[in-house]
Design goal:
2,3-Dihydroxybiphenyl 1,2-Dioxygenase, domain 1, single chain, 9 strands, alpha+beta, five-stranded mixed sheet
Length: 130
């Protein structure tokens, strides 16, 4: 058993792809035309970190309820965790790419950590070894 995808609701497919691929360094795994359950056009967009099995489905908000969830998928908590082998290099690359960090890097018992915001405003931990 494994988790194949998690969904992040976004405002715009192309902006989200730009953030996840350009700023975070994820791979664009799939970007295919699709249809909503009631037949309207949408896209099936999947990104994932290089070498990862679990991907992120970037789903454009459809309707008022979903639009209200953009950036608040986990009620303001850190809900996503990006683990890297070289924390300092990842932090510097992401900062240079314009990623907004909500906290400064700090060292905890489990390693280095800093909270950043994705394109939608969701909170992520950037995690690396101490």
């Amino acid at each position: 058993m494994r988790i194949g995808l998690v969904t992040i609701v976004v405002d715009d497919y192309d902006e989200a792809i730009g953030f996840f691929v350009g700023a975070l360094g994820f791979e664009l795994v799939e970007d295919s035309p699709s249809l909503t359950n009631d037949g309207r056009p949408k896209r099936w967009v999947v990104v994932r970190p290089p070498g990862a099995e679990t991907g992120v489905l970037l789903a454009r908000a459809d309707g008022e309820r979903q639009a209200g969830a953009v950036g608040n998928q986990v009620a303001g908590r850190v809900g996503f965790f990006l683990e890297v082998d070289d924390f300092d290099a990842a932090y510097e690359r992401m900062t240079a790419a314009g990623v907004e960090f909500a906290t400064s890097p700090r060292t905890e018992e489990y390693g280095r950590v800093a909270v950043f915001l994705d394109i939608a405003g969701n909170r992520w931990d950037l995690l690396g070894p101490a």
